[in-house]
Design brief:
By secondary structure, the protein is mainly β. Helices cover about 5% and strands about 45% of the residues. It has a single domain, classed as Neuraminidase. A hairpin with a 5-residue loop joins β22 and β23. The radius of gyration is 23 Å and the shape is globular.
Length: about 450
């Protein structure tokens, strides 16, 4: 059979159609590649932002957020200044930013218990259940609180006692972060003590909410890392299932330094990490610095995020540090493994950090601008710690959630690589989530 070959005129007519089809295919395959960095995703909420009110009688602030296996956004936080006192709350948003009415009661779950309750962290396990940790305050005592919700937002009565479990060691016990292992074990980063001479602590619970008797003493490992006091405030599991912690260690002069810890799978300090199982990072003598979040990247490097009052004015700056897998400063990152970020010359806090598909470091927080107005911030760094100048202004984007000012207190990256930032606005009492489109470089 003779093969027909189109003539040059036919080719010229086909080219525009082919180009259009190629462009449409590229958009369908990878919409984030074709869209500008940091633009609101208009398919989410209202003009890219979803607003909601878990408790109309209170102010509320989200502490943490994750996406589940269906792409829904799960958030937890604390209400303030309401008639019932501080309460823990949770909500779930659908992919399009609408409140998921099948979750809890009308999309929300709150806990009006006879104590001041706080939620610091949320995680979703392999069965879609929500694990959260924080603390609850009773007169003259503060205890760690771990609870689990079923995927429908109601308490999981099969966990602990009626859905929750407490831990009381001293008069000032705090739960900061939690992670669920592939085996269903739950780890909680905490501090236990009297508020003056605390110790970094890791709790481990079975999937039923029982303290794991094979872990430390009664399911708790209290760590000796020097200093007058220490706290474990962030936690991850590395690829080998070892617990990695970030926090702070207080010195005799009342200054404090970043603290990184790695444990063996049995809960002992891992001596292959810096020879002692822990390392402190000092940015400046006399500083007050502590870790708020951390990540372990694909190369096993440990990225720590936090804040410290190292500037001459004594106001907090954003701080990052990265360690190699053996606990040494990563000299390919920032200045000898450390980065200091200040943008307003006033107070700035960085609360959460993620690493995106391109290996860039994305941090969320807030700061006060020269007008003394609070601005939510989304700051992006290149993988070497330099400010990503292709993002916003010198690596910084300010978010207002459609309001004059607001705080960014939670963030995550969804399954399509888009950035999700959560926060609240004091004037309205509402919580917000903004979804931003992200441009990723093509792999070569």
């Amino acid at each position: 059979m003779e093969r027909q070959v189109p003539n040059s005129g036919q080719w010229r007519m086909c080219l525009p159609v082919i180009a259009l089809l190629a462009a449409l295919l590229a958009l369908a395959a990878a919409p984030a590649l074709a869209l500008a960095d940091g633009k609101p995703d208009l398919s989410f909420g209202k003009k890219g932002t979803s607003a909601f009110d878990p408790d109309p009688l209170s102010l509320q602030s989200p502490s943490d957020m994750v996406t589940d296996s269906k792409g829904r956004i799960v958030m937890g936080g604390t209400t303030f200044n309401g008639p019932g006192g501080n309460m823990a709350w949770f909500t779930r948003l659908n992919r399009n930013g609408s409140v998921d009415s099948t979750f809890g009661t009308g999309g929300f779950t709150t806990f009006p218990v006879p104590a001041q309750t706080y939620i610091a962290t949320v995680a979703v396990d392999s069965e879609g259940r929500i694990v959260a940790a924080g603390n609850y305050d009773l007169p003259m005592n503060r205890d760690i609180w771990v609870l689990r919700l079923k995927s429908d937002g109601h308490l999981d009565s099969g966990f602990g006692i009626g859905g929750g479990v407490g831990f009381d060691f001293g008069s000032f016990d705090l739960g900061y972060a939690a992670v669920v292992g592939k085996d269903g074990l739950i780890y909680v980063a905490a501090s236990t003590g009297d508020g003056d001479s605390d110790k970094a602590t890791v709790l481990r619970y079975t999937s039923d909410g029982d303290p794991d008797s094979t872990w430390g003493t009664g399911g708790a490992v209290r760590l000796e890392v020097g200093g007058t006091s220490s706290r474990a405030e962030a936690i991850r599991l590395d690829r080998r299932g070892r617990v990695v912690l970030g926090g702070e260690r207080v010195n005799p002069d009342d200054s404090s330094d970043f603290l990184a810890i790695r444990l063996t799978r049995k809960g002992a300090l891992d001596k292959t990490f810096n020879g002692r199982g822990f390392r402190t990072i000092r940015f400046m003598k006399g500083q007050r610095a502590e870790v708020s979040d951390m990540r372990v990247d694909g190369k096993g490097r440990i990225l720590l995020l936090g804040a410290g009052d190292i500037a001459p004015d004594g106001l907090p700056d954003g701080l990052l540090a990265r360690l190699t897998p053996n606990g040494k400063p990563d000299k390919s990152f920032g200045l000898s493994g450390k980065v200091v970020k200040s943008i307003f010359g006033t107070r700035m806090y960085l609360a959460h950090v993620r690493i995106d598909r391109a290996g860039r470091i994305v941090t969320a927080g807030y700061g006060r601008d020269p007008r003394n107005a609070e601005q939510a911030l989304l700051i992006r760094f290149e993988s070497n710690g330099r400010s990503d100048r292709s993002w916003g202004r010198n690596g910084v984007r300010k978010l207002t959630f459609g309001q004059p000012e607001g705080e960014g207190t939670a963030m995550t990256i969804d399954g399509k690589g888009r950035y999700l930032v959560g926060g609240y606005v004091f004037d309205t009492g509402l919580s917000y989530v903004t979804r931003l489109l992200v441009k990723y470089p093509r792999h070569r």
